[in-house]
Amino acid sequence: MNVTGQVFEDMQAQNIRLMQQLWEKDDANFKLMSERIQSDQFHKLLKEEKEEMAEQVLTLKTQVDAKLQVVRKLEEKEHLFQSNIGTGEKELSLRIQALEMNKRKTMEATQFADKKLHDFRDEIEENSVTKEKDMFNFKLNISRSLDISRLQRNLEMTKKPDNVPKRDEILMEEIEDCKACLTCPCCNVCKKDVVLTECFHVFCFDCVKTCYDTHQSKCPKCNAAFDASGFHRIYIG
Ligand SMILES: [Zn+2]
Ligand SMILES: [Zn+2]
Predict the structure, then answer these.
(1) Which residues keep their CB under 5 angstroms from ion ligand 1?
(2) How far, in Å, from the CA of 147 to the mean position of ligand 2?
(3) Is 70 exceeded by the pLDDT of residue 161?
C-alpha cells in the first residue's frame, strides 16, 4: 500500500512537472506565434517598401532615359552649331578678302582720279595762261587800230591849215580820253594798276583791296567774283 502510495505520489509529481512543462511549451509556442505574426507583418512591410523602391527605380530610369535623349539632342545641336561656325568663318574670310580687294581697287581708282585731277588742273592753268596772252594781244591789236585811226584823222586835220584851233581842241579831247583810259573807273582818282584775271577789268589797287577786304570780292564793272589770287599788279608806262 505504501509502495502504491509512493508511486501515485511520484506519478502525481511527474504529472505536475509535465503539466508545468506543457504550460512552458504553450508559452513558448505563444511567443513563437506572436513573433511569427510580427515577422509576417515586417515581411509585408518590407515587400511593400521593395515594390515602392522598384517603382521609384523605374521612374528614375525613365527620367534618366529622357535626360540621355536630351543630352543626345544637345550634342547633335552642338555639332550643327560647330559646322555652322565653320561655314560662317569661311564666309567671313571670303568677305574679308573681297573687302580687301575692293579697298585696293578704291585706292587705285582714287590715285587715278587724283592724277587726272592734277592733269586737269595743269591743263586749266595752261589754258588760262594762253587765254590771258590771247586777251592781251587782242587788246593790244584794238589799241593799235584805234591809234592808227586817230593818227589818220590827225593827218587829215594837219593837211587843212584852217583847222588848227579845231585840231588843238581835238588833241585836248584825246589827251582827256587817254587820261580817262588810265584812271581807275571806280574812284576816278587813282591810276589803274591792278587787273582782275577773271574778267580783265582794270582798277586801282586801293579800290580792288577795298572790294576784297569788305568781302564783296566782285568786279565793280561786271560783278565777276574773284579771290586772293584773282588780281595782279600791272605797270603802265
Ligand atoms: Zn580806284
Ligand atoms: Zn569785270
Answers:
(1) 184, 186-187, 190, 204, 207
(2) 24
(3) no
